[in-house]
Write a structure and sequence with these properties.
288 residues; eight-stranded parallel β-barrel; 8 strands; globular; binds flavin-adenine dinucleotide
Length: 288
């Protein structure tokens, strides 16, 4: 199934992101989490990819296979290209193809000590073109409502995003954000730039303080004052923090859907409890 086409048929498309276990743990440790997430019946589940050689034994493909064959849910396999050769990508594509996995989130990957070796790709757009010329895949790409941290301006980042769509990305998933007004501004700008593919909004329920610190410092994501106040008030109480984070995420989602957003992509952080609570709200509010 082509997940980008879901937007033509559904009022709301809800999906989850999960990540493989740490390289020191066996892949099977994620299956309980996956079973619990699968029970919630999302429209698809995406699986992250360890960039530039940190991927353990093809774990993304193995987990995507489990999602497809055991949970009977469509997987979206992330794939990064920095520090990678065309041969290596080709081999991963073959493995995806053999397992009937046709949806790929094509990414550059963050720069790190693990991917600073020479490779054949500089930008995600080159990976997208390569995947499209390699087989019958549906390609999804990432986008950044508050600008990618390396881009000189949001305008330039949107020009580069348009290039990814022109290279074959048929749908986009946003970086997480908390300030919907910035997202609406981004959508106006992308529409003016001629980008008209479906956009899934990445939602990260803010359930602990460390997470918030990482977001502001590494990702350049604005954490609004009301969220900071929440962290101040509940930060020392993990249970209260988790519940407050869920309520904030729901408030954000309700506003997004009221403003015409059709795709909600939940960064589950492999936490089925949080995903279940959000799904329950969505079912109750939107009769999904
Ligand atoms: P690109 O689209 O290549 O953009 C990177 C930068 O280059 C941007 O600043 C862009 O403006 C600029 N640029 C693009 N084209 C050009 C050009 N022709 N000339 C000059 N500048 C250009 N990382 C992982 O390692 N594993 C994952 O599983 C993963 N999942 C992700 C899921 C989502 C939804 C998102 C949004 C990000 C994810 N990431 C993941 C992080 C991602 O790899 C990083 O954000 C990375 O730094 C950029 O990836 P990209 O595909 O957006 O890159």
């Amino acid at each position: 199934m082509n997940i980008s086409k879901l937007f033509e048929k559904k009022d709301i498309v809800v999906s989850f992101e999960i990540f493989p276990p740490k390289p020191t743990s066996p892949i099977s440790t994620v299956y309980d989490t996956l079973d619990a997430l699968g029970d919630l019946n999302p429209h698809y589940i995406s699986v992250t990819y360890g960039a530039g050689g940190t991927e353990k034994e093809n774990s993304t493909v193995t987990i995507a296979k489990y999602i497809k064959n055991t949970l009977l849910i469509e997987p979206l396999a992330h794939l990064t290209c920095l520090g990678t050769t065309k041969e290596e990508i080709k081999s991963t594509l073959e493995s995806l193809e053999q397992n009937g996995i046709k949806n790929i989130l094509a990414l550059r990957g963050d720069r790190s000590e693990f991917n600073n070796k020479p490779g054949d790709f500089k930008y995600a757009s080159e990976l997208i073109s390569f995947i499209k010329s390699s087989g019958d895949f549906n390609v999804v790409a990432g986008c950044y409502p508050e600008k990618h941290p390396e881009a000189p301006s949001l305008e330039q980042d949107i020009i580069n995003l348009k290039n990814k769509v022109d290279c074959g990305a048929s749908h986009l998933i946003t970086q997480l954000f908390f300030d919907n007004e910035r997202f609406y501004d981004f959508m106006d700008k992308t529409a003016k730039a001629g980008i008209n593919v479906p956009v899934d909004v990445g939602i990260m329920p803010l359930t602990n303080i460390k997470q918030a610190q990482k977001m502001t410092s590494l990702m350049g994501v604005n954490v609004p004052k009301k969220h900071l106040k929440m962290l101040e008030k509940f930060g020392d109480n993990p249970l209260a923090m988790r519940e407050a984070g869920i309520v904030f995420a729901m408030e954000q989602i309700v506003d997004l859907i009221a403003n015409g957003v059709k795709g909600i992509h939940i960064y589950t952080m492999n936490n089925p409890y949080v995903a279940r609570r959000i799904m329950l709200y969505l079912h109750n509010i939107f009769s999904m």
